[in-house]
Amino acid sequence: EHGGSFLVVEDLHAGYGDVRVLHGIGLRVGRGEICAILGPNGAGKTTLLRALCGMVRGRGTVRLDGTALTGRSPDAVARLGVGHVPEGRGTFMPLTVEENLRLGAYTRRDRAAVQADLDRVYGYFPVLKSRLGQAAGSLSGGEQQMLAIGRALMLRPRLLLLDEPSLGLAPLVTRELFGIVRSINEEERTTVVVVEQNAHLALDIAGQAHVLETGRIVLSGSAARIRADEQVAQSYLGYR
Ligand code: ATP
Asked: Sorted alphabetically, which Pfam families does this protein's record hold (predicted)?
């Protein structure tokens, strides 16, 4: 499946003002695949996701299913079906669980479909249904991450971008979360790009993986191949 062309990134450069972070990123993700982006702190993983979703201006090519995303606003990119779950989650703490989820459907007007999507999200995350009237700020870290993913799902994304979903979560909670991400991917064929420090978990669910270092991809391949790479093993798989 390598070389799929649902998401195509070519020679992507991006940064913040004069600070250049990404130096010519190229990768391809096939429709329905899960792609993991690994790499050390500061490598540019978060910046890559921001460039994909329009939060950071990039130079180069980003195409989703043939449509150019480069140069579009985050809102326009969201309307084209890209759901972004940022690091730190970005949920609105004083709002209830359900209000947060409804915000995720802001691009949509069809009330009945929004209700159906709420039910769909509650199907993946039953704990959110049991807390639907509670303030998001009262949820546990894992529940807040579920809420953030649920909110992105309300867009009916074709591409889901997950930034460090395991951050600050207990291993058991992380495992459950990744299991749900896999179910979403399998049941809806949602293409997923996941940035993770926890390489073991990411490689468990990913088909392809890329290792990013100082703004460049230094290694790409099947998750199995990346897992077997000695350098990767030393740098990123030394813990579980
Ligand atoms: P982490 O896992 O720590 O989030 P990362 O691989 O996601 O690391 P980025 O967050 O993309 O890396 O950061 C890459 C580089 O860009 C770092 O040197 C960082 O200091 C810089 N950077 C990130 N955000 C900004 C910003 N808003 N303004 C200026 N520089 C930034």
From this structure: ABC_tran
In degrees, to the nearest 5, what angle opens at C-alpha 23 toward C-alphas 191 and 67? 40
**Structure tokens, 222:** 């099947």
The best mutation among 47, 211, 213 to test binding of ligand 1, ranked by most ligand atoms within 8 Å of the C-beta, falls on 47
Distance CA 44, CA 77 (A): 20
Tell me, what's the ipTM?
0.94
Q: Are 37 and 59 a contacting pair, CB within 8 Å? A: no
Task: Give me ligand 1 centre to Cα 45, in Å.
Answer: 8
CA 209, CA 195: separation in Å to the nearest integer? 10
Q: Which tokens is 3 given?
A: 């070389």
- On the 0-12 / 13-18 / 19+ scale of CB atoms within 10 A, 235 is middle
Q: What is the pLDDT of residues 34-73, one digit of tens each?
A: 999 999 889 999 999 999 999 999 999 999 999 999 999 9
99 vs 231: CA distance, rounded Å: 45
Tell me the CA–centroid distance for residue 211 and ligand 1, in Å.
Answer: 16
